[in-house]
Specification:
Elements: H1 3-12, E1 16-22, E2 28-33, H2 35-39, H3 42-53, E3 63-67, H4 72-82, E4 85-92, E5 95-98, E6 109-117, H5 121-132, E7 136-145, E8 157-162, E9 167-168, H6 174-177
Parallel strand pairs: 3-4, 3-6, 6-7, 7-8
Antiparallel strand pairs: 1-2, 2-9, 4-5
Bound molecules: zinc ion.
Length: 189
Amino acid sequence: MDQKNVLDLFRKSGALLEGHFRLTSGLHSGGYLQCALVLQYPANAEALGRALAAHFADLNATAVLSPALGGLIIGHEVGRALGVRAIFAERQDGALTLRRGFALAASDRVVVIEDVVTTGGSTRETIDVATRAGATVVGAGAIVDRSGGASKLDVPFRSLVTLSLPTYEPAQCPLCAQGVALTKPGSRT
Ligand SMILES: [Zn+2]
């Protein structure tokens, strides 16, 4: 799957909208991305998981680790494609941690998988969870990289799509200046 195929899947499922949006942060953007909408179709999730897993096929991974909630579905599908278990870390008192009896051993070779990487913060945090458990992180991946290459990681990082979706303060928004109608993603009319 190349970048165009992936973006077509996103557009067809309404996971990538182009226009003029007011985000929950209050900022404006010309694009809106919601991975859950493409992943709601299991066939899409499976295909994206297989494509992402192909980048990590040579690493002898033994487990996929994802941050909840966004990384769950794609992490599971990458685990399926690699033939390894897929576990997740979730927040407890603000910090990502392994719960539910999930464990990693020193022999584990972990691939960290997320849906979208924006700043790289939660990817780094998830890498730390695996490292603290004594495992080796051999790679990290996401369906979409919207960091613009800003997310510096200590492990090889691969994504299926690189997207730049700039956000603007309303007063500086070029789309407002052009008089483009503003919509709130997710609202139905
Ligand atoms: Zn605007």
